[in-house]
Amino acid sequence: MEGVMAIGKSSxxxxxxxxxxxxxxxxxxxxTTNHRHLAAFQSPAHLFSNSSLSYRxxxxxxxxxxAHIFLPHLIASMEVEESYIMIKPDGVQRGLVxxxxxxxxxxxxxxxxxxLFQCPKDLAEEHYKDLSSKPFFPKLIGYITxxxxxxxxxxxxxVVASARKLIGATNPLQAEPGTIRGDxxxxxxxxxxxxxxxxxxxxxxIALWFKEGELANWEPVQTPWLIE
Length: 228
Ligand code: DAT
Ligand code: MG
Known about the structure:
By secondary structure, this protein is α+β, with helices and mostly antiparallel strands. Helices cover 26% and strands 20% of the residues. The protein is built from eight helices and eight strands.
């Protein structure tokens, strides 16, 4: 099942510069706020994407007007999927392993694979190959290989999109409180956790990081209490 969420640009209520007028009984107060200089309060435009890769565009007002799609733009599907979740070296070094695993366990997803692993450079490069042309790529590879990571395979209906929501935005300062990155990190280059961005990449990444025999097929006893 494909979910679509589109919000027309014109319907978005917030802007990076806004004026507020407060009328009081005896006086009128005007306040103008400009958030442009605050990295944590950038224009909400970063939450929207023109990407048509995953979603059909919906034109609500006039033809050819580009719809802006809310990120994280994966809407939970009704399919059983697998997601590769990895606690990055900073999450391990900071003692956040239990906290991060707990969030996925509590949500109700099924853990199928789990290991502490020192990632070799070639595996990190393969995992992040789509980003190989980015200027930050060498630093990213250095970071991911700088210490052990915790590799996890999680299974469940809609787990890919749901895990991305639990993880939060790439930049932890833009990640919502309540998400892993929103609660536990402050910088993109130290954002503590990875999550697959599509069901296809979930399968690809689990096959990349786990060998045959490292994944368990099992049925949690709580399943009937999670799924009717
Ligand atoms: P995500 O991890 O949210 O899927 P991504 O796939 O775009 O984000 O990038 C992978 C990782 O690369 C990200 O977790 C941290 C790093 N990264 C991304 N953009 C970066 C940037 N502008 N500067 C430094 N590191 C960045
Ligand atoms: Mg990614």
